[in-house]
Every structure is written in C-alpha cells, then in structure tokens.
Amino acid sequence: MSPADVLSVVTLIALVMLGLALLISVVRIIIGPTLGDRVLALDLMTVIAMGFVGTIAIRTGLMLYLDIAIALALLGFLATVAFARYILSRAASRGDAP
Question: Where does it sit, as one GO cellular component term (predicted)?
C-alpha cells in the first residue's frame, strides 16, 4: 500500500467520523433542553466544519482551504461571543442569575 493510498483511507475515515459528530451535534441542537446547550452545539458545529475543511485540505493538497478554516474559526468565535451576550442580556431582563 502506497502512502497516497493510506492518506486517502485515513482522510475518508476522518470525514466519516466528522459526519457522525455533525449528526450528533444536530441532534443536540434539536433536543437541547436549554439555550446554552444549543449554543454549545452550534459552536461544536463550527469546530466540526473546520475539521471538514482541514481534512479536505489534506485530501486535495490545496492549502488554500486552511485560510478558509481560519476565517471560519474567527466567525465561529464571534458568533459564540454574540450568543453568550444574548444569553446574559436575556437573563438580566428576566431577573435571573446567569
């Protein structure tokens, strides 16, 4: 088995595992009893998407995809901060402790 064949098999296994993790994350978004669970699952989906992009970059050999992963990481961080601020403002308006 050549190194290219091993790399192809390993990246395929990684893509399948990331797909399963994405499905589990979607289930947590749908079932999640609290808003915090849903926000955490959305953040997990961002990390999984970065894994997808990184795996595709390795599989194709195009390092341009890594720039996309970095941009996705920044966007995911900003979205998580925005959701956290929303949860805090929602708790403050209701008089709940965060």
Answer: plasma membrane
